[in-house]
Amino acid sequence: MLTDKLKQVIRQSYKAIGENLPNFNPRKQQTLLIAEIAKTLAGEYSKDRKIITLEAGTGTGKSLAYSLGAIPLALAQDKKVCISTATVALQEQLVDKDLPFLKKNAGLTFDFALVKGRQRYVCRQKLTQAVATDSPQAGFTFAEKPKADDIRTLNAMHKALTDGSWHGDIDSWKSPIAHHIWSQVQSDKHSCLKTLSDHQHCPFHKARETMEQAHVLVVNHSLLLADLELGGGRILSTPDETFYVIDEAHHLPKVTRDHSSASITLRGAIDWLTKLRETGDKMAKLIKSQRAISPALKLSDDSQDLLIEMQKVLTFVTNNASVYFTPNHHDNNRANQANYQTNKPDEPVYRFDNGIIPKSLKDWAEDCNELSKKSLSHLNKLYSALIEAVKDGDTQMYLAEPVLAEAGFMLQRLENLQALWHMYAKTDSDKAAPMARWLQQQAPTKGSARQDYLLCASPIEVGFTLEDKLWSQCAGAVLCSATLLALNSFDHFRFQAGLKNNDGSQYQQVCSPFDYQNNAQLVVANMTHEPSAVQFTDELISKLPRYLAQGSASLVLFSSYWQMQKVAQALRDQHQLEIAVQGEHSRQHIIETHKKHCDDNKESIIFGTQSFSEGLDLPGDYLNNLIITKLPFSVPTSPVEQAQAEYITAKGGNPFMSLSVPDTSKKLVQACGRLLRNELDEGVITLLDKRVVTKRYGKQLLDSLPPFERVFEK
Questions:
Q1: How confident is the model over 637-652, as pLDDT tens digits?
Q2: How many CB atoms lie under 10 A from the CB of residue 416?
Q3: In whole angstroms, what is the distance from residue 697 CA to residue 704 CA?
Q4: For 548-569, what is each residue's pLDDT tens digit?
Q5: What range does the domain containing 373 cover?
Q6: Count: domains in the chain
C-alpha cells in the first residue's frame, strides 16, 4: 500500500518542482497521473497485477508524472525504475533534461544512467589490436579492406579512447563510422568478456558498472526485449525487482514482433558454414587439451551434414523460383502478388499461405534445426574451453583473441540460423495465429551473378511473448503514450500488447489540458474526388494554394512520396511557392530552416509524409496551419501484415475494420497532434479526404480526435 510517508514525499517533491520551474501551473491531469501510477505500483488496485496503461494527451507532462509516481516508491522498496522509449529524442530529453532537473529540484536522492546495447560500444582490446601494426588487418578479419580514411579513423578512435577524450560509444564519436569498420571493433557478448583481464576496462563494462549503481535506467525498447529474451536480468535489472515505464508504448508490439523474427540468406549462410569446421579446428589447436577433441570432431561432422541439408533447400528454392516469383502465378496467394508489386521489382517476395510450407521443406527445416542446434552446442563448448585456457594461462591472449572474435561471429550467425529453422520446423497450433513464413529473391550483389534468396519467419501476434516474459514477471509496469486508444478504446492496443481487462490491470485516459474548442479548428474540405481517384492529385494541386494561405507556418502531410513530389513541383512551377520537401534535405535542416523563416516573419511550408506526423515538435508560431491530404491508411504490404490479415479473414473477421481502421485512428490522432504543442498555440487543421463524411467508419475516426471546433465545407 501507499503509506502516508510516501504520499508526503511525493507531494513535497511535486511542490518543490513547482517552486523551481518557471511559469509552473499545477495541472489536475498531471496530479491524477502521479496518483494513479503510484497507487497501481503500490498494489492498491491489485497486489498481483501492478500494471497501468495510460493514454496521456499532449501537455499533460507525463515524463514528470511517471518519474514522480515511480521513483519515490522504487527508492522506498529498493527497486529500480527502467524507463524504455522508442526514440533517441525522448531518451536524450530524459537523460539531458528531465531527470537532471528532477534530481536537482525534487528533493529525491537517486542516480540515473542511459543504458545502451553492447554493439554501441567499442571493445578496447579489439581496437588496440586493429591499430597495433602497420597493417590493420594483421590477425584481424575485416569484411571489407580498410581504406586510408578508415585506418585514420581507427587510429583517432584509439588515441581518443586512450587519452580519455572519448568514452567509447559510437553515438558520441564526432563523425559517422563505416559499418564494416565498426563491426570489427565493437563489443560483443562472445569475446569481450569482463572475466578476461584484457577486457576488464572496456567501455561497455565501465558503462555496466555505472548502470549497476543507478536507481533509474533509461533504455530503448530493443534493448529491453534483448534482456527479456535472455530471461531478464542479464543486461538490465531483474524483472521482479524492477518497475518498468514503457513510454511511447504504442511502438512496443511492433518492436517485439521485429525482435522475434529471423532471416537468413541461403547462399550467404552456406558460404560461412563452409568455414565453420576451420574455426573449430583453430580453437581445438589453441586449447591443447583432450576435452577439445570430441566437440571439434562433432562440430566438423554436424556442420558438414548441415551444409548438405542447406544445399538441398537452396536447390529446392532455385528449382521453384520461376513458380514462386512469377507475379501472375498462384492466384489465391493475393498477398504474394501485392508484395511483388510493392517491393523493389528485382526483389520479389513469396509468402506461404497460412504459413504452411511444403512437406519436403519442413522435413529439411527439422533436420537443419536439429543440426544447427548441435553445432551451436559444440561451438559453445569449444569457446568456453578456450576462455578457460586463457584464464588458466595455458593459451596466450594475443593468440586467442582473433580466434575468439571469429568464433563470436560464428556463434551469432548460428544462433540466428537455428532461430530461423526452429520457426520453419515448428508446427503451428490450431488455437493460435500461425507463423508468417516467406521467401525473398535478392538482387545479385555487385560483381556477382549468383542469385541468393532470403528465408524469413516472424510471429504474427506477440502478446503472449510480452505476457510470458514481462507482464507476469515484473514488479510493476506503466505503459504510456499520447496515442494508445484506437476508436476511443484500449481494446486494439490491449490485444497487441498481451494485456487483459479483467485481471487487475488498470487503464486510464487523461485528456490534454489544451482548449481544443477555442484554439483550433478542424476543417473537412469539400473535395470532389476520393484519394483513390486518378483526378485526386490534380485536385490537390488546384485547391492547396487556398488552404496554404490560411496560415504563415504550414505542414502538409502526404501518404505517398510520389504524390508529394508531383504536387510540390506543380505548386513551385505554377505559383512560385517556396516549399521544403522531405527527402530533398535532412529532417534537421528542414526544421531549422523552417524555424528561421518563421522567426524572420516569412511564410514557410513543409511537405512531409508519415514520419513527419509523429515526433515533430513545432510549437507556437512554428506551426499554425496543418493540412492532411489523405487519411493515413496503410496497405498491408509486409508479409507479416498480410499474414495477419489472412488469419483474421480465416477466422471470419474483417481485417480492414479489425486492423486498418484502428491503426488509421491512431495515426490520425498523431498527425493532428502536431498542431497544438502548448496551451497558447492556435491554428487550423484541414482534412482533404472526403471519406470521413462518405464512409461509415468516417464518423468513428472523427470522434476519436480531440474536440476541435469542426467545420464541414459545402
A1: 789 999 999 999 999 9
A2: 15
A3: 11
A4: 999 999 999 999 999 999 999 9
A5: 263-458
A6: 4
